[in-house]
Amino acid sequence: MGEEVKTxxxxxxxxxxxxxxxxKLAKKQGLEAAKKKKAExxxxxxxxxxxxxxxxxxxxxxxxxxxxxxxHAPYDKKDLATLRLRQFYGVFLSNTVGYSNLKSVRELIxxxxxxxxxxxxxxxxxxxxxxQALGKFGIICVExxxxxxxxxxxxxxxxxxxxxxxxxxxxxxGLNKKRNHYVE
Length: 184
Description:
One of its GO terms (molecular function) is structural constituent of ribosome. Keywords: Ribonucleoprotein, Ribosomal protein. The protein is mainly alpha-helical. The protein folds into two domains: 14-55; 56-167, no CATH class. It has helices at residues 11-55, 74-82, 102-112, 127-134, 142-150, 156-162; strands at 60-65, 89-94, 114-117, 120-123, 166-167. The chain has a three-stranded antiparallel sheet, covered by helices on one side. Strand 3 (114-117) and strand 4 form a beta hairpin. Helix 3 packs across helix 5 (142-150). The protein is elongated, with a radius of gyration of 27 Å. The mean pLDDT is 80.
């Protein structure tokens, strides 16, 4: 009567338990690695933002189109299409007359910024979207993107092409016509 009763467990169940434990361990290690990488990125982003604040210069302008795209001559339409401009859209341009300030560029990108990733328009809510698209150029966060745009850096073209045109709202009261006599 002192015999122990062994319960037999099917081999497939033992394999499944072992596989689940391995998956759980791999997932835990992956989460820890991602958490560590995110913490390092956070420190790096903060340090870069502090450094960038010292470097900004006026080399950038923001171009808007208020009037209708259809009322222009065909050669003007081609130029506007090259600049990715339609009615009430805006884009960044380098080395032109009239400069943007850092505050307006930052607000535009944070509030109205959309990126193009895999031919889709994606809102810039997470740094991972930017890192996925522009990580190979050293641009891993929104502040890096703002810096590259603002300083018209070496990867300005790639960063600007990643940003879609900014869709703006029409003016509240509409556009007023300026018809003044030359005396006025």
